[in-house]
What does this fold into?
Amino acid sequence: KKAQAWSARFSEPVSELVKRYTASVDFDKRLALHDIEGSLAHADMLNAVGILSDADLSAIGDGMARIRGEIERGEFTWSVDLEDVHLNIEKRLTELAGDAGKRLHTARSRNDQVATDIRLWLRATIDAVVAELESLQLALLEVAGRHADTIMPGFTHLQVAQPVTFGHHLLAYVEMFSRDAERMRDCRRRVNRLPLGAAALAGTSYPIDRERVARTLGFDGICANSLDAVSDRDFAIEFCAAAALVMMHVSRLSEELILWMSPRVGFIDLADRFCTGSSIMPQKKNPDVPELARGKTGRVNGHLVALLTLMKGQPLAYNKDNQEDKEPLFDTADTLLATLRIFADMAGGITVNAARMRQAAAEGFSTATDLADYLVRKGLPFRDAHEAVALAVRTAAQRGIDLSDLTLDELRAFSPLVEADVADSLTLEGSVQARNHPGGTAPAQVRAAVARHVQRLEGT
Ligand code: ARG
It folds into this structure.
């Protein structure tokens, strides 16, 4: 009795080491339900074009239904001897359906089969990622809406630059995550093409109907070239690239959460259930979740590089190298989904210390630009206004006070254009309210942006 589906050509069985080295079933069994789905669509098509009898088709249908149940209940016995998910399922089908099971592989190769399975799996994965990205955006929007008026310092070079609202700051991340979702949807269009029919590489001599299979499986169309269909994994690389961008955004947000939560800054607090303690320092409440997310970003970047490198030296068409696509791809999806899920949950639990934020925004001459703009409105050219305010800042800094602590007369020493109405320009509220144009930090703009995004996401 031959051990492998292909072993008739060989004079000795494959060595144990090689068997273990080349087997993929331990990880590709994750594709099992998609493998069954693809096989059923293929069988339906073989029957429709007259290659497979009605009796064989129904035997295959019954066998696959049974196998699906066994897999779902965890009763299916996976065997390394049978190499991969495809041969494991085919073997069991043949036990259950006899010759009909052996006929299933007509006009098909594992090369187009595995490419189809991955695409089906990735399509579902992308839909899940998009849903999680939307939940995260909604969670951030909820907090942003509550903090449309909350003033914090905006930074450049990690130095206080100008006051912004906390809502506006969070909306920046909503923009990033909405572009990420867009990228995922765009990637899905290229994932959603049918490789089946390419067979090993050249196509098949049977009169197959690829469009029918594409329709059955919900693909938007077929892969147009058989060599390309079985050999390229650019769609998976593209997903990993889009995933790396999401993680990069998550990582930047993480960095800010960690910084804001540091007792030295004290802008926010995260709910206790997202933090951990120290086994030695009793006072600690550590932001482990954002730190771990920042760390996992490296791992997702690594998977992207792994896949690019996996692909770059391969001649057409299929090479066994491609079996190595799965673990990086699966781990990318697992890491991304778990991270997004926890962030959507955690974002809602951010509590804000508005007083601390306000106090920090009041330091560092954050309204200096507003004073310069004030002088410009009074007729001074911007460059001259910049210089006058720079001198005022220098004087205030030397005395250890803020611009708003200078008297009217002291301010007038830097420019005679200063009048009593300057006070409004020096307040934090005046500063943020003045930036009242689309994309600006004014509370009214923040509220409008929140409403627009919620409408986009919820369609209400
Ligand atoms: N397990 C293989 C993979 O993941 C399936 C295709 C195998 N084809 C082959 N000719 N060895 O890529």
About this structure: Strands lie at 151-156, 159-165, 193-194, 221-222, 268-269, 351-352.
